[in-house]
Amino acid sequence: MPRFNYTARDSSGRQVRDTFEAASRKVALRMLASRQLQPIELSETAAVVDKKKQSAGGARKATPRARDLLPFFTALTELTASGMSPGEAVRLLALRVKDPRLKTLCATIWEDLKEGQTLSQAMEGMPQVFDLQAINMVRAGEATGNLNEVLLRLIHHYEEQSELRRRLATAMAYPAFVVLGALGLILLFVFFLMPKLQGLLDSLGGEMPWSTKLLIASSDFVVGYGWLAIPIVIILAISVWRWRQTPSGREIIDAQTVKLPLIRTWVVDTRVLVFVQTLAVLLENGINTVEALRLTERTVNNLTMRAALRQATDRVMEGDSLSVALTRTGFFPDLVLDRLAVGESTGKLAPSLRDISRHYSQRHARRLESFIGITANGVLLAAFAFVGFLAYAIVSAVLKVSSSFQF
Fold first, then answer.
1. Is residue 100, in this structure, part of any structural domain at all?
2. Which of 120, 204, 205, 220 to pair with 403, CA 20 to 30 A apart?
């Protein structure tokens, strides 16, 4: 903790000089006032200042990211659960953590806390790490005095979202591996096997069957013009990505993703799951329904769904129940709406949202498993079909050419 040298006058007018520790200059002035000392001069010791600046400068070499939020909350909760104040916990983390980005995060927040800011105010200064949901929940926890409970709920919430992303990545790993394997097989045939096979068939002469002609023509086209596909695909992908960054482009793409039959269910269910998880956490921590809805709608990254949820929030403000307002969005299944209606009527809306969240998580897991099976089997079937056609084309060509020889 920083040390301060001070010169002050006591109640009798006598000058007093001493050194003491304080979290910040503001805290040091309050401490002097509590001792009935009128400060004449107050300065932080040079050695501590230099050391602090050197430490902060070294820590800020690494830039914190959104994925550092969960480790920070977890480490902070472990210390505050033992009775340590949030400020002291952050200071200790800034000194002891080894991860460069997490150390930078803790050091930056500690700098703001030393200036008298609250934890939620310090978090607001790092929007690249903390979203509005986390900031407002921490602010509510500070106001109600149950910050540690809020942090525990936030940790549970972000762990659920992290697990969902992990399962999605795991689900995509096997289909991606199969696709890459099939693509490698095709490229091996086109660039290495087919030229040798074509040379052999040309040397034998004779008329080749249609399947072999199609195979050779396709191979020649890929070898001759396939290289053009790479820059075209890259340019097209960059163009679509940049258009997606524009307000009009994102609005159009988001509107289409909730209409396309093949992906609508996946997109809508994913957003609904995030919505009910976030809303449950906010309501459990004492945030009123309207404010919780305003915060929750911002976590939905599909603009079409976000606009519908914003209209639902407006209807709740006008007096509609939450279940009725969400019915008009067209994105929530009847079972979800019925559970919400029951939760509202019994005064247990947050527990109802928790039940819905568990139901959607299980539903999501089942769909992930189905997606893995369908995609992997489809890719394998396509690869087997290609190999079968390849074998048929080669064998039929050999048989036809050999039958043309006269013995």
1. yes
2. 220
Place of tokens 């930056």: 108
Residues 72, 188 within the same domain:
no
Give the rounded distance of the alpha carbon of 291 from its chain centre: 23
CA–CA gap between residue 102 and residue 342 (Å, rounded)? 43
Q: Are residues 65 and 32 in the same domain?
A: no
In a domain, 70, yes or no: yes
pTM of the model: 0.60
Q: Smallest Cα–Cα separation from 126: which of 151, 114, 109, 102?
A: 109
In whole angstroms, give the CA distance from residue 4 to residue 24. Answer: 9
- Find the length of the chain: 407
What is each CA distance from 389 to 93, 197, 205, 219, in whole angstroms? 63, 15, 22, 14
* Calpha distance 316→306 (Å, rounded): 15
**For the chain, what is the total number of helices (H) and then of strands (E)?**
17, 3
- Token code pair at residue 298: 């911002």
Query: Token pair 């407006």 is at which residue?
Result: 314
Among candidate residues 60, 91, 93, the one with its CA nearest the CA of residue 75: 93
Same structural domain, 79 and 177: no
Same domain, 289 and 405: yes
What strand order describes the sheet that includes 15-21?
15-21, 3-9, 38-44
Domain extent for 112: 61-130
CA atoms of 60 and 55, how far apart (whole Å): 9
**Number of folded domains that form the chain:** 3
pLDDT, one tens digit for every residue, the chain (407 residues): 567 777 877 777 777 788 877 766 777 777 777 777 877 777 766 433 343 444 444 444 578 888 899 999 999 998 988 888 888 899 999 988 888 999 999 999 998 888 888 898 899 888 889 987 788 778 877 876 778 888 887 888 788 778 777 877 776 777 778 778 777 877 777 777 777 777 776 666 666 778 777 877 877 777 777 778 788 889 998 998 898 888 888 889 888 888 887 788 878 887 888 788 778 877 877 778 888 888 788 778 788 998 999 999 999 988 888 889 999 888 888 888 888 899 888 888 888 888 888 887 777 777 777 877 787 788 778 878 877 887 887 788 777 766 665 54
List Cβ<8 Å contacts ≥24 apart for 49-56: 49/2, 52/2, 55/107, 56/107, 56/108, 56/111
What's the CA gap between 328 and 399, in Å, rounded? 66
Q: If DSSP codes are grouped into helix, strand and coil, which group holds residue 250? A: helix
Q: Are 328 and 315 in contact (CB under 8 A)?
A: yes
